[in-house]
Design brief:
Length: about 300
């Protein structure tokens, strides 16, 4: 489920969030330039989830940050959460031949940190952590590897479209292999990506990652990073578009979805494990964000 959030300041690009609907894999493939509906214009925007844009041939332009770049064969744009993609005109990608691949942290397993600024030590996600970057990172796939990239993305798209038996495992495997390729290409170009360019935000998300299963307030996070709650609130909102409490809730919801899908625990037990000692409050919060109760979510994902 894609949701659109406007900037509280009114002068920044809109941001899109993605919470996979029940039964939906947290992975998607979008043709760019060679399918109906893929060439239309759109507003300047960012996402709070990562993505890739890969182009198999020359053609079209892509607007990222404040730059307009002519697309060349082998171009791979690594789109980190928060990277701004410029307003696109309807003809920008008419002559292009590429694909967009988007995913959430859920796709890489239950032990993957949810907040992107904690990805800097993850072997597959470190290319998506770039601190104050405002546009996508541009890499180049070597000519002798381009056919394999095209085949891999098409195979991922095929699994998502046809949903044959075992498609979940196959889709995740294709995604992991794509991300291995990204990490190898990025290693020589962005060797310092593991050193986060936003140390305060990194510290905030580290606190949330460690302590989200416990009662955790804005004041407690602020104390842990040694700044005032007011300063923390304004800094996190300005740099991410969300409040500290919204990030805490988002982290808890990611883990709740994971446990609902795979764990033989009651809904109340899951609520307690992700920081909601009150089962009713957990159910109301989950329902508000997902449009259905935790029990309904679990049923759609194969558990009674």
């Amino acid at each position: 489920m894609l949701t659109r959030r406007t900037s509280p300041h009114g002068d920044e690009p809109v941001a899109y969030s993605w919470r996979p609907s029940p039964g939906e894999l947290p992975v998607s493939v979008t043709p760019l330039g060679h399918a109906a509906g893929a060439d239309g214009g759109h507003e300047a925007h960012s996402h709070d989830f990562p993505g890739l844009s890969y182009f198999a041939a020359d053609g079209g332009i892509i607007r990222t940050g404040r730059q307009v770049r002519a697309v060349e064969a082998g171009d791979l744009f690594v789109i980190a959460p928060g990277d701004v993609m410029g307003r696109a005109d309807s003809g920008d990608l008419v002559d292009a031949r590429g694909w967009g691949v988007f995913f959430t942290a859920d796709a890489l397993g239950p032990d993957t940190p949810a907040a992107h600024l904690t990805w800097r030590t993850h072997p597959l996600l470190f290319p998506f952590v770039r601190g104050g970057a405002v546009g996508a990172l541009r890499l180049k796939v070597p000519e002798d590897e381009r056919a394999e990239w095209t085949t891999r993305i098409r195979a991922l798209d095929d699994e998502l479209r046809h949903r044959r038996e075992g498609f979940r495992e196959a889709a995740y495997a294709h995604l992991v292999l794509l991300l291995v390729g990204v990490s190898r290409l990025a290693a020589d170009v962005v060797g310092d990506l593991r050193e986060n360019a936003e140390p305060l935000l990194a510290e905030v998300f580290d606190v949330i990652e460690r302590r989200y299963p416990e009662p955790l307030s804005l004041r407690e996070v602020a104390a842990a990073v040694s700044i005032s709650p007011g300063h923390l609130t304004s800094t996190v909102r300005r740099k991410t578009g969300r409040t500290v409490q919204e990030w805490i809730t988002e982290r808890r919801m990611v883990q709740a979805r994971r446990l609902l899908a795979v764990a033989d625990l009651t809904v109340s037990d899951i609520g307690r494990q992700v920081g909601f000692p009150d089962a009713g409050y957990f159910a109301r919060t989950f329902g508000k964000l997902h449009g259905m109760s935790p029990t309904a979510w679990r049923k759609v994902n194969g558990r009674a």
